[in-house]
Each structure stands twice: as C-alpha cells, then as structure tokens.
Amino acid sequence: MTGPTKVAIALLDACRDNPLARRFAEAVVSRSIAVGRGLAMPSSLGGGLLIGFATAPGEVALDGAGRNSPFTNALLKYLPVKGLEIQQLMTDVKADVYDAILGQQSPWHNSDLRAAFFLNR
Questions:
Q1: Whole-model pTM?
Q2: Domain map (residue ranges) of the chain
C-alpha cells in the first residue's frame, strides 16, 4: 500500500477496549507480558502512510450519544471540505473531538507523508 509514489490513509474508529483484557491479565503468570488498554502505537510506517486513530495510543475512545462517535462526527464534518490538506484535516478533527467531549478523548495520528496530500481539491 505504500511506496515512493503512493499514499495510503487509514482512519480507525476503534471505540471499545478489549473486554477480555482484564481476565487475560489475571491469567498471565509472567510479568514480561503486558496487557494494555486501547490500540497499540504502530512501530513503523514505511513511506506514504497516514493512520488516524479515534484516540491516543493506549486510550479508549468514547462511543458518543448519537448515531456516530465523536471521531466519526468530526471526520464527516471535515472530509468534504475542499482544499483541506490531510494533516490539517486531522488537526481540525482532533480539536473538534477534544472540545466536543470536554477533553475526555484526544484523537491522534501517525504519519510519514513526505508531501502535502488533499482528499478533496
């Protein structure tokens, strides 16, 4: 999906924590195995990839009260905006979500894009 002339974008709205994590952690005898909350941070990207997450690594995103999560609501607001570069789009989404739920969730993105990229020019 990635390479010198390609761009790949993944937007992950994974709202729920692993419901089995507590039970798994209690069953683990070795201290070398850690069971965390939320999604783990990716170790490397490889070129031309942006991954947007509903919340920061190790945190759990909120579902929200309506049809969509706060993250999806913000994405739906900004994805159609013409002339908005993808990194700025993610910054705007982060601000909207953080403000909408009073700082309880902070979206996050990881990118190794080497040039500006526009979804909707």
A1: 0.75
A2: 8-111
